[in-house]
Amino acid sequence: MKKQILLSIAAAGMTGLMIMSNSAGPATSTGGNRTGAKGSTANCSTSGCHGTTSGVSARIWIDSAGTPVTQYTAGKTYNIKVVGQHASLTKWGFQFAAVSGTGSAQVQAGTFSGVSLPIANHTLSGLNIIEQSSVITAVSPADTFVKSFTWTAPASGVGNITLYLTVNAVNGNGSDDAGDGSANITKTLTLYTPPSSAVGTVNTDLTVTAYPNPVSGSSLNLRLGNNYGTYSISVYDVTGRLVSSESISSTVNGNATISTANWTPGLYKVAVANENSSQVISVVKQ
Which fold has domain 198-285? Predict the structure, then answer.
């Protein structure tokens, strides 16, 4: 009888060890690749990983010297932030991958650097997987985690590159249960193609100013130098979340207006771009 009890305790201990083993990253345990890219066993919203609590969000922020990008230049290095958010869960884990190609033909795209504890770089199925090396505790605001590293694009263009991110928000009880939640997203980067020499006579200087700044009303005025034309405007909050995105046309004197009605008080990055250049400015909403 004592032997059976001891065996039961030992089995329970092993089960607990298996449950907790993914806290150091699924790539170091039986969890494997959960990003959704080639070689994935499943993503982390499926059975055997984490529960079904709703309200978990994931975001990928990629920029060059502070300017958000949706295209990449071969051989150029970019800053990447992975972001997770939930209203109450404060313990986090994640996996991230960058690949080119589709399906089983996907291959690693580029290289990672600036990876330091509590995150690590592992190789699975020929892909580099960036993930937590220990449980990440959210900080300021208490329901958000942000981790940063750098990514250098392939030395030659390889077409579209897909960034995969899966995040886990857990209650910290050491079990995979319904109190945990997860989210999975992808982001596609297209290869930047320089404009042809036919537009060489176009004024490519872009100087953006915003007023009033700080803004307290429902609209923000932008002065775009003396450039008339169409611009893409993307607004991001301090966690890298895309607040709004729109295309606007400036007046003949280079003025335009965007709505701030859905902005909550805080700091925002406003990215303004046309086909030739771009600029990011900081705006405060009171």
Answer: Immunoglobulin-like (2.60.40)
pTM: 0.66
CATH 2.60.40.680 fits 22-191, yes or no: yes
> Do the domains 22-191 and 198-285 sit in the same CATH topology, yes or no?
yes
* Model pLDDT for residues 197-230, shown as the tens digit of each residue: 333 333 445 788 899 999 999 999 988 876 666 7
Question: Tokens 């709703």 appear where?
Answer: 54
Sequence ranges of the domains in the chain: 22-191, 198-285
